[in-house]
């Protein structure tokens, strides 16, 4: 087996679909979809960001980040770099230097199933990053091997190269490319209906009456 596997990056999600996803809240999709949501322990380091892009996947292990540094040179504008740490929760593979390199390549976000570091530098770069908190112990170039653009596991979700990745304050959602547009359009429609419902409640109507919940409770009282 080769020490490194580097496959070709998958085709990118169309700009039209990305623009739809950028209007989509992950929590809206969570009203009907139950799969594709990364474990909620993967949280944003920077708040009030919503980004969408095409998954470029990397698997690296333990204290080594050799392949991650190489992968940064292969990123395209619009990519989301998704890093499978193979269970390691001790070493921060992503810090200020990786952030600057990812942003310079045009990547729109990073998602790491493990800790990161250098929060001040991430903030200074204004680069959206989702991870499992912070750690002071960093990875190094130990040349232990790894794989790029292969299926990976991030927070209980299988991420395929080329998947659509949507990240916001509520979490991270991974969608197969052929499902992304329909899910985004449904979410946008529901969000518009939700705003109308909120306006009705603000005007004095009861949410339970609008949703039908009150009728169900009254019927259940016998």
What's the pLDDT, averaged over the residues? 97
Residue ranges: pLDDT <50 for 5 or more in a row?
none
Number of strands: 11
- Please tell me what the overall shape is: elongated
- Please bin the fraction of helical residues: 25-40%
- Estimate what percentage of residues fall within beta strands: 15-25%
| Secondary-structure content class | alpha/beta
Rg calc: 20 Å
Distance between the termini: 68 Å
Biggest sheet overview = 9 strands, mixed
- Oligomer type: single chain
H/E order of the elements?
Answer: EHHEEHEHEHEEEEEEHHH
Describe the structure.
- The protein has 8 helices and 11 strands.
- The chain is an alpha/beta fold.
- It has helices at 15-21, 26-29, 66-72, 96-104, 119-125, 177-202, 207-211, 213-220; strands at residues 4-6, 43-44, 51-60, 79-84, 109-112, 129-131, 146-148, 152-154, 157-159, 164-168, 171-175.
- The strands form 2 sheets. Strands 1, 2, 3, 4, 5, 6, 7, 10 and 11 form a 9-stranded mixed β-sheet that branches. The protein has a two-stranded antiparallel sheet with strand order 8-9.
- α1 (15-21) packs parallel to α6 and α4 (96-104) packs parallel to α5 (119-125).
- The protein starts with a strand and ends with a helix.
